[in-house]
User: Fold these one by one.
Assistant:
Number 1:
Amino acid sequence: MTQVAQYLIKNYYTRYTKVKAPAMKTLVKLCFERKDRMVIIQDDRIKGVAIYLTLTDETYRMLKDIDIANADAQMAFDLFRERGKNIHFIMLAADCLRTILKGVREVVKREHPRTVSWFNPDHTKLHTRRF
């Protein structure tokens, strides 16, 4: 999980967000605790990593009003505890679109969601796909 945390720091936080990356120890802990909500695409090296939430319909409807990028720790913990049929990707870093699509297919196959969503990197637009 240390390699996954390093990959996220290098490819997610430095490329897509303007917030400071959490401490390596914190990110490794998140990766260990939430490995059921993570998809990792790799061959000889890590090609992509995504962390997602499984939201209830009620929370999913309020998603545009919640600033997940700046959510406090308790809210983030509560969102991770939810077990709904709506997938929302909160962290995503990949080397190409093919890797992203492979990861999405893997999550759809594993979770059988009603919807899949994600924000664009600057959190101005919510993208949604129904299944």
Number 2:
Amino acid sequence: MHRPAKLFSFCLLLVLGASASPAAAEERPFHGSVEATWDDIFEAFGPDGATFEGGGPVTHMGNTTQTGILYLSSEANAQGLYPGHGSVTITAANGDEVTFDYEGLLDPLTGEGTGTFTFTGGTGRFAGATGGGTFDAFIDLSLPTDQPMSVTLDGTINY
């Protein structure tokens, strides 16, 4: 083979080899219905935030346990809603985990929290998980501590 033909063959192999990457993560629907209890949601206004524990059915994971933390702004926005953010870990029965960060708004009159979440990774088959979606939460703010909460998660997950 002549030198230009060898160079062309070498370049072709490089291009073909670079495009033969592992299969990309598949985008799948993600849905969860969670029941949880806050330790004291009002601690979310402090520097340590408020934590919750709970669980429920989640697609791709079965019945799960979940833990999370929330930090709320001490200042309401112009609509009277409190901006907040936090993180959640969802654990499947087999121990695989998926994590996400979220941000949203809490209505102090109704106890409804709405916003978005973004997956930040996980373990087991969820290692490197990406995607995200929306959440809708209802918290019983009439109780001083141990406030129950129900949450619906809807979005997509890639793993």
Number 3:
Amino acid sequence: MVGLWPSEFKGNDLVSVKDFLEGQADELPNITGKMVYAKVEEGGQGIPFINNEFVYRFELGGYYLENYRFRVFIFSHDILLYPVKFLLDEELSREFGYNGGVVGSCIYTAKNYDEMVELMGRIFKSRRVNLVVGSIMQMSRKYGMWE
């Protein structure tokens, strides 16, 4: 029998979006005085146009607001990691100048690591995310949940 497989296989050495975002999530409690956290969690399947094998949600929450989570975006990619698709929160989409699409939200595609980092910088520094994080901190203080 003729062997058709190569003699060795090479994986890629790219940084996954999930690993990158988990690193960013680890920093948020330190920046917010341990009032706000971010999480990357699996899920979000069944959303139109996000039909890759790996689908995750990036959410914000408050340590003192047990039942509250704010979904900033859903992201997905295939086994090769890039390109990666991001389905943004509706208001965040508007802030970025997009006024239509899937239930008012917008899908951004990052073709590579550099494009992903640039998009994450825009998202994390956006007015919308700033207001959400600030509101979580304010509510934690207001209701005496912050010691």
Number 4:
Amino acid sequence: MLVGRASELVNTAMCYETWSALGWADIKYRYRRTTIGPFWLTISTAAMVGSVGLVFAGLFGNDISEYIPYLGAGIIVWTLISATVLEGCNVFVAASGYIKSVPMPLTTHVYRMIFRNLIIFTHNLLLVIILWCIFQWPLGWDVIVGLGGLAIIVVALIGVVLLLGTLCARFRDIPQIIAALMQLLFLLTPIIWMPDAIKSERAHLVVDWNPLYYLLEVVRGPLLGRPPSAWVWIIAIVLALASFAAGSSFYLRFRHRIAYWL
């Protein structure tokens, strides 16, 4: 029964013309009358990576040529995850006008929002190219493996957005809680600090039991020419499948009530 109901997720994904067109329209509307559009986000990210990288490399005693690319790749992947989660909390609330007036699957708005953030992610990848031109770290065909890691992140994010979007349509206080939680997770996830800098065995639990670390690493590692171990891939895949299963099940259970909650 659940498999049959889940066909909505698959059928909507196949109708990519709709949600991709809406995602492009969102980008154009957000950055209309600007000269370089979403590249403003890339510039602000580059400024943060440069300033924070120089300061924290000195504080942690890290090699700048190693730390700044690590920080830059981590920030780019984290921005994709964080922005998608935060926008996902209000994905149905923000699309309430469409939901109440246009007969289309609700998951269209989920794919639309994720596609929009993927567009911004591809713009931000320009920063990695610039950093590589400066620091020239070893980079081979392993970087293509990062596409598989990106697919894993997308699957995980679809599940998270389906769950949080449904919950937040009913309980409007949850987005504030999630925003505070994401700030905490940013500090607890190895983005501005490197796992090798941890000396305490107990402190390694922050990395080993942090699901975001594995999702980050399957994309950041290939971008830095250091593909993660098979164990990291296995955990990331399990996390993505568990997230998708939990989110889709919750959404399919309450999807008919969402329009009444808006």
